[in-house]
Design goal:
The termini are far apart. This protein has one domain. It is mainly α. About 35% of the residues lie in helices and about 10% in strands. It has a three-stranded antiparallel sheet with strand order 1-2-3.
Length: about 130
């Protein structure tokens, strides 16, 4: 009859179980299905702003941006920054003729407030 230690030559529990510190945090943008990909590679300033908002709360944003610059990613939102032509830019220039007056930077929250809740909020402010 064999005992566990004779058969496997494992003497400590730490050799079997992976420590918690080794586990890797997952990025907020990677759900495994690519449902947010359109936001990170969009031409729309609103989609780009939403992608930046998602990255703004991610713990891996700095590593993501550093990796994108190291790989020379041609475009997209990486680590909360907009990359175009392998460089970080403040805003993406839309197609067509540039405007006479610069457009304001679009900044949005990660999840917009639904319209029916906005109407309820304004109604409660008028009552008070």
């Amino acid at each position: 009859m064999y005992t566990l230690n004779e058969h496997l030559d494992i003497t400590e529990f730490d050799e079997i179980v992976e420590p918690i510190a080794v586990r890797v945090a997952t990025p907020r943008c990677a759900d495994g299905h690519g449902t947010l990909t359109h936001l990170f590679f969009s031409d729309s300033p609103l989609d780009t702003a939403r992608a930046k908002a998602i990255c703004g709360k991610c713990k891996l944003a700095d590593d993501c941006l550093a990796g994108a610059l190291e790989r020379a990613e041609p475009w997209g939102v990486w680590g909360g920054e907009l990359v175009e032509n392998r460089r970080v830019v403040a805003v993406k220039r839309p197609r067509g003729r540039p405007p006479k007056h610069p457009r304001p930077v679009v900044a949005v929250e990660e999840v917009p407030i639904p319209p029916h809740l906005v109407a309820d909020r304004s109604r409660s402010e008028r009552v008070a």
